[in-house]
Amino acid sequence: MENTEFEKRAAELMRRLNDPSIVTAEELEDAAVEGLYRLFPHYSWVGIYWLEGEMLKLGKWRGRSPTEHVAIPLGKGICGAAAASGKIENIPDVGADSRYISCFITTKSEIVVPIEGAHGFIGEIDIDSETPSAFGARDEELLTRIASQFRRFEGKKLR
Length: 159
Hints:
Blueprint: H1 3-17, H2 25-39, E1 45-52, E2 55-63, E3 71-73, H3 77-85, E4 89-91, E5 109-117, E6 120-129, H4 137-149
Antiparallel strand pairs: 1-2, 1-6, 2-3, 4-5, 5-6
Helix pairs in contact: 1-2, 1-4
């Protein structure tokens, strides 16, 4: 996708996510997942995992198929690594990363962006792509901006 088209779609999504009619974290989660999946065709699966104890639990998701990985221990896989480090994991070739937990045989690359609350990690945005090296700096920037939107619900139940 060309930069101008990506930026146009990113701006559309951010306008949607900043809509005053979104008054709960669940509505924001729905709008973010749906918007990312619909507006960015190189995103083949989009989900949000939330921290519950020592596990990441799958919240809302969009894709052609559900994943069997609805609960992931901290530190396991790419999602668990991002949770443990609090840093973005941008994997251009999942087949070359020994941490990768296969969800779909068609997945070639994955990006995981932490969602931080006032006291640290609370969840993450996880996106798969069927295109190798699908995610760049613009994806990281957009997903970081979306992750920061959840801060406005700090102190309220997120799930």
